Amino acid sequence: MDLKIEDILNSTNGKLIIGNKNTICESFSKDTRQIKKGDTYIAIKGENFDGNLFYKEAFDKGADTVIINKINLPKEDIEKYNNQNKNIIQVEDTIIALGQMATFKRELYKDKIKVIGVTGSVGKTSTKDVIANVVSQKYKTLKTEGNNNNNIGLPFTILRLKDEEVLVIEMGMNHFNEISYLTKIAQPDIAVITNIGTSHIGNLGSRENILKAKLEILEGMKNKLLVINNDNDLLNKWNLENKENIEVHTYGIKEKSEFQATDIKLNENSSNFICENKNEKINISVPVGGEHFILNALCATAVGKLLNLNNEQIINGIKSFKLTAKRMEINHLKNNIIFINDSYNASYESMKASILSLKNMTAKRRIAVLGDMFELGEFSEKLHRDVGKVVFENNIDTLFLIGKDAIFIAEEAQKFGFDKENIYHFDDKEQLLKKLKDYINPQDVILFKASNGMKLFEVVEELKKYF
């Protein structure tokens, strides 16, 4: 069910400057570099650029329709594009209009699809990926690409809907009211909260406030059906105290849960476990190492069961899922050198999980290359120090650090007894890269982990070329 220009005008209170209101808009783009013939270009004004300045380029690349803010349009442009049967829509604010269009489209599909909304402090993208792969064994499925999980990415995902039966959508946030906005657009049928950690604690002030912000996901739901990680202390406590009319399904390893992992066998690049649910036991293989991926698989099993998948479909969906790039991406290089590229983002919880994965790798030396974690505010020093303690406790041989706050990782690891001769700290990526080229030997396993803004993935790509 594609939108017509008339639908866009009605949902956004926009104005059609030139064009035909019966024109159908099939696909949408905000990037003129990726425009295809017949696309609708939505101009987004960001901090460092203004997409409204590129509407002519969008037309030149083949777009039929552009949606722009109320800017002055030269008469000659209006005449030119009118003669070419192009469409120009003006709105007060394209970002708000984008949300309004997505809300309208979601309403068109209200009885035709199931929407699964995924949020949490860490693990949203990988959990979304495995859920989508599981449900796609039975239903035609659309999912959020990458981590396009904000007030721009989520609406664009909904606008991609065609004839799918399930939509698996990721929801991120930095502040209060952001999940509230997203969930009212997406209107999930099933909500998933992976955990409550310390990501963005600098903005929200406490983990309890992070829990409140994540629970905003319930606001967009008519029938509140929630799947939670029962091993997470705050989610567990909230569930025990839950007095509202919310149907909660739990999964866990340590805490007694509806979907429980037992007989866990952790391997370097995979794991096996039994999922116990009611009176049945399901043997599950996960194609990625690490205990946190067992939790992701349990979550996908719970969602699969809620959507009436059989055990074989669930098993196949988990066994065949692939990670989004730069998330626990294992690169096997010459001379048995292995890179674990987990450089997309970082919080204390995800740092700990990645270091535990490194610990379980067979290697001559285990090397951790760690950078700053962002948006931690007044908690930054403590949480970086907590990472230092984790490094000491988990058989890491050498520690390479980059960034201002990463120095606290070094100090704490040293305090617990990590040999300072095996710690290297750098202020810039060039120095780090030069040292790593000289230092890495055959049979080393190297973990790369930092917040995305540190751009540690650039170091990984250079080293991959070198080795």
Look up the CATH topology of the largest domain.
UDP-N-acetylmuramoyl-L-alanine:D-glutamate ligase
The domain count comes to 3
The whole-number mean of residue pLDDT values reads 95
Query: What would you call the shape?
Result: globular
Helix content, binned percent = 25-40%
Structural class: alpha/beta
Secondary structure tally: strands: 22
Give me the side-by-side strand order of the main sheet: 9-10-8-11-12-13-14-15-16
Provide the CATH top-level class of the largest domain. Alpha Beta
Biggest β-sheet: count, sense, barrel? 9 strands, mixed
Radius of gyration (CA) equals 24 Å
Poorly predicted runs are none
Distance between the termini: 49 Å
Which CATH architecture of the largest domain? 3-Layer(aba) Sandwich
Number of helix segments?
17
Strand content: 15-25%
CATH superfamily of the largest domain: Mur-like, catalytic domain
Q: If you had to describe this structure to a student in words, what would you say it looks like?
A:
With 467 residues, this protein is α/β, with parallel strands linked by helices. It is 37% helix and 22% strand. The protein is built from 17 helices and 22 strands. The strands form four sheets. It has a nine-stranded mixed sheet, sandwiched between helices. Strand 19, helix 14 and strand 20 (398-402) form a beta-alpha-beta unit. The chain is globular and about 75 Å long. The termini are far apart. The model has no long low-confidence stretch (mean pLDDT 95).
